[in-house]
């Protein structure tokens, strides 16, 4: 091995430095030294700018997550708010923090703010200062990063059909509320409309339709003329000779006011019929020279007249007498011999040609059999359903026979089974149920001088407000419609579901009107609201006639009760509606959960609202779930 002394290394080094000092081809050390700092700045800026870019990307993602979460939490309720509520703001801040944690990418002074815009979108701004590593040597200690974001809930083309229970119990008030159920419903629908319209995508279309239901539905004005039968059988009465004669006196009478007052009271809805306090006292009785028997009578108190809407609801009116005094005179003017007559109660045909020019006709079924008077019979728009049969197996329904459950079938003008029948409310006598509650249902004809119950006159033939087809509506139109909803009638859920489906279906009666617009698909929703359990009455005149008499889908000897029959048909109709790609939402309002309704709606689409506030929240939640949430910036 060769050894080298330290002196020889020094002499060699000195010679090398001398040669280097005389070299003119390039001062390498000076160049390298001069280039070191710019090169370090270039590399350092690349490193720190890369970190800043990564931080900006992550900050943008966090900003988007924050406004999306806040907008989703706010839902369509933004339409009735001017600021972001604290609950929504907290949610947005939490999602921002989860996606961009403190000190991420060496950040400090992180911030995130949101605001609610006029179009109900939520805008956000996020900022952070990203600490540098290499560039700090050159005096650049941080890189400011700022991003903007915006989220919006949008509604595309949509059809919304609201099937609303307007039975008598909707006039009740839920515990803790200061308004009736129907008042709460009116306010909720108006708010729902505002939320939906505020979330609508520019250029899109949202249409609204309504089917109020109780004992029946009012859809006659929506039907073409040849969708109705030309003749139908109704349960009414006509006078018929009973044979023999009767001799009776003839009287004339007159009334003379003396003093006091009597005033008709305004009608109102109550859960019971108040007892009348009217008292009538005969002050004197005389017979004058002309043979007039004259009584002077005094009346005090109130006489109430009650019309029963359903089992627990009455419309009450009355007359109050304040020392009302009058003279009542009568005298016999002769005798007359008349033939004996009685009523013939039966299911009898009525020619419906009168509907071509008028909504009413007259039938001689008032007064007495001996002296009948004409009664005006009116068509108010409610219908009797088309042909059906008593179903025992709802897993195998023959829609060729159960035409009432065929949502899409268009009537054939040459086949009355496929057509609907106008409901003539006055033609609804319950043979042989007497006005004292005695008697039984008799399907066949009955001849009798007795008075039998008339469903309509006794308040058991309710016909709700006319339904409305799908259409674009203004806030004023929505308000006018719901403000006219009147609680009356009993709870028949099936007829509401059937007709809600018919008016919403894109493949049925109104296929041309309900088709998609252009190439833009339409989502279809039904909101079905009820405040009670199924509650049909056998004495009601409804969409299947008078059930114990007409026996179209049920009879008193059926294996299922009338309630079970209505519920089974409701469930079948609900499935038929959903098969048409219609989303069904069901709300039970002021009542407990209902398994039939829950099964209809399915998971996540059934709600129970105990009071007005919960009803508002429920409709807001439904609107939110209908919407599409997206980032717009």
TrEMBL record:
TM segment ranges: 25-47
Q: Signal peptide location in the record?
A: none
What PROSITE patterns does this protein map onto? VWFA
Q: Which Gene3D superfamilies match?
A: von Willebrand factor, type A domain
Q: What is this protein called?
A: VWFA domain-containing protein
Keywords of this protein's UniProt record, alphabetized?
Answer: Membrane, Transmembrane, Transmembrane helix
What is the species listed in this Swiss-Prot or TrEMBL entry?
A: Alteraurantiacibacter buctensis
**Per its UniProt record, what Pfam families does this chain match?**
Tad (PF13400)
